[in-house]
Known about the structure:
Layout: E1 2-6, H1 15-25, E2 31-35, E3 46-47, H2 55-58, H3 60-67, E4 72-74, H4 78-85, E5 91-95, E6 103-104, E7 107-113, H5 117-124, H6 138-144, E8 147-152, E9 169-175, E10 183-188, H7 194-202, E11 206-212, H8 221-230, E12 235-238, H9 239-245, E13 254-257, E14 260-263, H10 269-282, E15 291-292
Parallel strand pairs: 1-5, 1-7, 2-4, 2-5, 7-8, 8-9, 10-11, 10-12, 12-13
Antiparallel strand pairs: 3-4, 6-15, 9-14
Helix pairs in contact: 3-9
Amino acid sequence: MIIGVGSPFAGGSGKTEVAYHVYKILEQVNPLLLLRGYKGQKSGPTLVEENVDDAFSVGDEAYMLALRGVRVAVCKNKTQGVKFFEKNYPVIVIDDAFQHLGLVCDIYVMTLPVENQLELADAQLERFFPCGPLRDFFSDCVRKSDLIVLVDRNGLGNTVHTLDVKKPVFYSYYENKIILPEKAVLVTGIARPEAILSFLKQAGVNVDKHYRFRDHYFFSQSEIKHLEECTHAPLITTEKDWVKIKPFASPNKWIILSPRLVFDKNQNFDEHLTLRVYALLETKNYSSNHQIKD
């Protein structure tokens, strides 16, 4: 069985955290989490080994997940990856699956960031990057989806959200269980870091400066040394960035934001998805409903 997590948004939509959450609630059925391994040196298909690989070999997101204890694999060609791993794993969760046209998944989970209502409105008007947030047609992705997860990335769970679609919609938010300083310097190499700035501001942190690098940026030793030497306040970064910063860093100078996804308890996302998955797995004539196009 293939579960595809994806989004019409061009980066920063919570796909990886939703894919991780899906993996965790299905751990009893021996799932595999498959990523492209963006910017990693290995083309795959290969399982990620925490003690052998690093962010440079398999990509920042894949290595970050491996450090969390996830059984994760990378393959530049996800269709090839599914063919390689499907005999050993009854459930494969694919991170960023919607634009991979060669693979049809059994269940599609669409993620949408909702902390910026103007962006969400632009998405529903089919406004593509750079004039809007989209890299794919919003309506097509909604049509393809079985479940839609709204992700509030500013981490406070208080965003007002509106989405009028005839699909099951679930609200979630990032939770950061960490003690934060009164003043800090922010270092990010992720898409749309405004949500983190909003979270820190509402949490009472005075962000003295924000060093903003492009998404999936690989930091150099000299850059990290410069940041540590020129900054007196604590340095805050993301878990995804930390796997690339850590080899060059003095850990006592850094605070790592490691958000976990929390769902509205009244909506029962875990139960809803689990029932769908087990119903498919228990179907007598289920062999594999996904189709792979050569």
